[in-house]
Amino acid sequence: MSSHQRTQGYVPSAVFQPGSANGAALDAARAAAASTATVAHGPISFASPPPQPVPPRPQDSAASPRAPAQQASLPARRPSLAADPHPRLRTVVLPHATLPRFPAIASVNTVRNMETCGLLLGWEIVKGADTPATRARYVISTLLIPKQHATSDTCAMDEEEGVLSFTEAWGLITIGWIHMHPSQSCFMSSVDLHTHTSFQQMLPESIAVVCAPKSDPDFGIFRLTDPPGLQVVLKCNAKQAFHPHPDVPIYTDADRGHVQMRDAALEIVDLR
Ligand SMILES: [Zn+2]
């Protein structure tokens, strides 16, 4: 755990087991991401609130014109409820391809010392009643790069109506966001934590992916603890963008919880 993580209230999930399926997948993805490591620069600030998602789709994604066939056939394996620290959360599938591809897209900006951010969009697949055995699964299918403006340490979406139009047109929901920490370690800054409250309030399963190619680990998949992290950050009225939070477990690693990395299809949509 880095000092950045400690000062921002990071607490590891208790269910991660080295050598597990998820652990092996993460190792493979990290190796792939490392092969596309980009030039380092400063921290990112995703200043704009995310777009409002459309209501969850009531039926299987097979009804969608853009749903790849393999999404519907993904195996239903998930950690046992006893090992799941957030048993109420439904599984989120994150394609392996996300991690090598986003840093590659961002490299155009990073060589110019500019930040990059993206949105993780997808579907809700309902296979039956919302019982532990048949709970809905969210599948991230699209990495959307919105129009944005950036500096060496900030990045904000422009023309959010364009993002909303896209998600509505294709019936996608916002399942998370991704951004670069090119020269810092893999952690959630105070700005990132505040940004993520908007996502997690809209969808409790929302994830924040941080890519940090100069760090080890070089990416992380995070969520606010709930409680107490989500409530702490929502109540925080700090005026400065970067500020400390109370010394409680504010966020944790979602990849060791409700997120499964799989060889699912990923579409890249660049609105810039
Ligand atoms: Zn705060």
UniProtKB/TrEMBL annotation:
Mind telling me which Gene3D superfamilies this protein's record contains? Cytidine Deaminase, domain 2
Q: Where is this region: Disordered?
A: 42-86
Keywords, comma-separated and alphabetical: Hydrolase, Metal-binding, Metalloprotease, Protease, Ubl conjugation pathway, Zinc
Query: Per UniProt, what is one GO molecular function of this protein?
Result: K63-linked deubiquitinase activity
- Write down the CDD domains for this protein, in alphabetical order: MPN_AMSH_like
Cite the InterPro entries for this sequence. Answer: JAMM/MPN+_dom, MPN, STAMBP/STALP-like_MPN
Per the database record, which ranges form the MPN domain? Answer: 92-230
Q: Report biased composition (Pro residues) as residue ranges.
A: 48-58
**Co-factor requirement:** Zn(2+)
For the biological process aspect of GO, one term held by this record is:
proteolysis
UniProt entry tagged with the keyword Protease: yes
GO cellular component terms, A-Z: endosome; membrane
Per the record, where are the segments of Low complexity compositional bias?
59-79
Tell me which PROSITE patterns the record gives.
Answer: MPN (PS50249)
The family line of this record is: Belongs to the peptidase M67C family.
Name this polypeptide is given: Mov34-domain-containing protein
